[in-house]
Specification:
Elements (H helix, E strand, L loop, with lengths): L7 H4 L3 H17 L12 H6 L9 H4 L19 H14 L3 H27 L1 H13 L4 H5 L4 H22 L2 H19 L8 H11 L4 H25 L14 H19 L15 H17 L3 H23 L14 H15 L4 H23 L4 H11 L4 H13 L3 H14 L3 H17 L3 H14 L4 H13 L3 H14 L4 H13 L5 H13 L6 H17 L2
């Protein structure tokens, strides 16, 4: 893109720049090196550890037509990010399912992104601004989730390819005619990789358009700057919805009213404030923990930075980057029903880091206190990042920390309960799941908490309490087959076969072609006294017709009941 730095000498790479880049890379890597020994947490288990697609032959090519392979385990999420999955396949080929290789890749990518921020802003705004911005980017606490959370790699890869695309674009405007096409092709290839890493990259044409307008380039220059990426983005969107035609709007949660507008404004303040006041990590919680006045104060500080930063056009560039890349985060939180998350702020944070660097560079020589304040701020951010990174070491530590910051988050209690359950700590798991039932904000979350708690209590032999939570869950979602089958099993264990049959007959109304339900009914009709042999045989035959495997226990019981009937007959 057209040059902004003050002189040609200020843009040329020298040995000092190489040393600075190495130092910034080392800083970013050292800060998050504590995540190398972490386990798989949260979505890592579904996306990597338990994902059969990762071990499927031909996954290298098939990932370009799938949703992370999660449709195999009936957990489609609507993400079309084949480049991210390819990186997971590389990790799997290298280290199998050991978390170290996956975490190492994330840490390395964050170090690389820090160097790319230095290179891009050094080229556009000078070495000092590039160095300060990259230092802020290396230590910013809002990045802890993207780096320490393996599934957050989509943001790391998206940022990497976006920055590479912009560097290639800048180089294409400086290259001679023969090399210009090669640099433009490299820029578009990197941009396509960014789009295939995360949908957030669709905002880049808007960023480039804002850049051209802010610097008052000629129309022809603006067109050359924006049109190629806009065409690639349009092609990507068309291809993406052909491959994965899932809506980006959650109709069930969409209600365009005053409450919706209020939530939108609150989320905007939250994400903007998280860039300058990142003292409460989201950690998977769905609640806004900070008070509104804190976010308002943080946004006021952001406006102040914009006001004092000079050159004004560079500051406006940074603000445009922040705003353009925050827009997709607001979209997914408001329209797509996806929770707020710190990882959504990874790419936008380049803007706030640049803005802070531009403001600091203005007073660097004139006010010594600015240098002291910057050193203190960078040290504080580094300590927070190190601390936040440690929270992701295992599922229990993650959700304990989430509850500490968000004590009203039912989702955090739910996930901590599941983590305790997986670790064999059933008493603690039951306590957390009870709190999740009480604090869950929506019916689906409350149902999942009831269902898991009922299953846990059943495994612990507390049938009466398990029945209670089964009934509570079925009041919310009466059509859930698995929970109703569990309730029937609990009745059967207590000898209440009539109640079990009633529940299974109700289940058939919602799932008439479920062979497992017919098998359960066959068992119950054989268990009651006197056994109802004809009904048991009928349901067993129906289960076989629906594809159920032969059950020797049921067949033996039917044979015994027929023999008993024959011996009783005169």
């Amino acid at each position: 893109m057209p040059r902004i730095a003050s002189s040609a000498a200020d843009r040329q790479l020298n040995r000092r720049d190489v040393a600075v880049a190495i130092g910034l890379f080392a800083l970013a890597v050292a800060l998050f090196a504590n995540s190398l020994g972490h386990e798989f947490v949260w979505d890592d288990t579904a996306v990597i550890r338990d994902n059969p697609f990762l071990r499927e032959r031909g996954a290298w090519w098939h990932c370009f037509g799938r949703d992370f392979g999660l449709e195999i385990i009936r957990r489609p999420v609507g993400y079309y990010r084949p480049v991210v999955f390819l990186s997971f396949l590389l990790n799997y080929a290298e280290g199998g399912l050991h978390p170290f290789a996956y975490h190492a890749a994330n840490v390395w990518l964050h170090g690389l992104n820090t160097v790319l921020v230095f290179c891009l802003l050094g080229r556009l705004a000078g070495r000092r601004i590039g160095t300060l911005a990259a230092a802020f980017f290396a230590v910013h606490p809002v990045h802890a989730e993207s780096v320490a959370f393996i599934a957050g790699r989509s943001d790391l890869l998206c940022a990497c390819f976006l920055l590479l695309s912009l560097l290639a674009t800048a180089r294409s405007f400086e290259a001679r005619r023969g090399a210009r096409a090669a640099w433009q092709g490299a820029a578009l290839f990197a941009y396509a990789a960014a789009l295939l890493s995360k949908e957030l990259a669709v905002a880049l044409p808007g960023v480039l358009l804002a850049y051209g307008l802010i610097h008052r380039f000629r129309f022809r220059t603006i067109l050359a700057l924006c049109a190629p990426t806009a065409v690639v983005a349009a092609l990507y969107l068309g291809f993406r919805f052909c491959v994965l035609p899932m809506a980006l709007v959650d109709q069930s949660s969409l209600s365009l009213d005053s409450e919706f507008a209020s939530r939108g404004a609150r989320l905007l303040f939250y994400y903007a404030a998280q860039q300058v006041f990142p003292v409460i990590p989201t950690l998977g919680a769905k609640v806004l923990a900070r008070r509104l006045w804190v976010d308002v104060a943080a946004v006021a500080l952001l406006v102040l930075l914009l006001a004092v930063a000079r050159p004004r056009r560079l500051a406006t560039d940074a603000a445009a980057w922040l705003a353009m890349f925050l827009a997709p985060a607001l979209w997914v939180s408001l329209f797509a029903g996806i929770e707020l998350s710190d990882r959504f702020a990874y790419v936008p944070s380049v803007g706030i880091c640049a803005l802070a660097a531009i403001a600091a560079a203005r007073y660097w020589e004139r006010v010594r206190l600015v240098r002291v304040a910057l050193a203190i701020l960078l040290a504080a951010f580094a300590l927070l990042s190190f601390y936040y990174g440690r929270m992701w070491r295992n599922p229990i530590s993650l959700w304990r920390a989430s509850i500490a910051y968000h004590p009203q988050s039912g989702r955090s209690y739910y996930n901590l309960g599941n983590a305790y359950w997986g670790a064999g700590m059933r008493t603690e798991a039951a306590q957390m799941l009870r709190k999740a039932v009480r604090l869950s904000a929506d019916d689906e979350s409350r149902f999942r908490a009831c269902a898991n708690l009922a299953q846990l209590l059943a495994e612990s032999g507390e049938d009466a309490l398990a029945i209670e939570y089964c009934r509570r869950g079925l009041k919310i979602r009466p059509d859930r087959t698995q929970l109703r089958r569990l309730l029937a099993e609990l009745f059967s264990n207590r000898g209440q076969h009539d109640n079990a049959i009633d529940e299974l007959q109700t289940t058939l109304r919602f799932a008439p072609k479920n062979p497992d339900v017919h098998l359960d009914l066959a068992r119950e009709y054989l268990a009651i006294r006197p056994a109802q042999l004809d009904r048991a045989r009928q349901h067993y035959q129906h289960a076989l017709e629906l594809g159920a495997p032969t059950d020797e226990t049921i067949e033996a019981a039917i044979a015994a009941a027929e023999a008993g009937r024959s011996s009783d007959s005169p």
